Amino acid sequence: MAKQVTKDTIIMDALRIDPGTAEFFMQIGMHCLGCPSSSGESIEQACAVHGVNCDELVDKINSYLVSKEA
């Protein structure tokens, strides 16, 4: 079963699940993935700061993670 993220997943935890998820954060303007905020900020919190629909981002990341399992 593929690992999944939720809106409550900490960004750094998503990157630990699969470093390839960085691409999705970068695409929406989250360029400081190595900064301290990513170690304690949830996907939902980051989306709020960057004005991004959290559910859409979570869906994209989870689709990517599922595709890696195939």
Report the total helices.
Answer: 5
Strand content: under 5%
What's the CATH C level? Mainly Alpha
Give the topology string: H per helix, E per strand: HHHHH
Mean pLDDT: 89
DSSP summary, beta strand count: 0
Q: What's the CATH architecture?
A: Orthogonal Bundle
Domains (count): 1
Biggest sheet, open or closed, and with what strands and sense? none
* Structural class designation: mainly alpha
Ends apart, CA distance between termini: 10 Å
Overall morphology: globular
Rg (CA only): 11 Å
Instruction: State the CATH topology.
Output: SP0561-like
List low-confidence stretches. none
What portion of residues is helical?
55-70%
Topology:
Layout: H1 11-17, H2 22-27, H3 36-40, H4 43-50, H5 54-69
Task: Describe the fold and architecture.
With 70 residues, the chain is mostly helical. The chain has one domain: SP0561-like. The chain is 60% helix and 0% strand. It is built from 5 helices and no strands. The protein has helices at 11-17, 22-27, 36-40, 43-50, 54-69. α4 packs across α5 (54-69). The radius of gyration is 11 Å and the shape is globular. It starts with 10 loop residues before the first helix and ends with a helix. The relative contact order is 0.25. The mean pLDDT is 89.
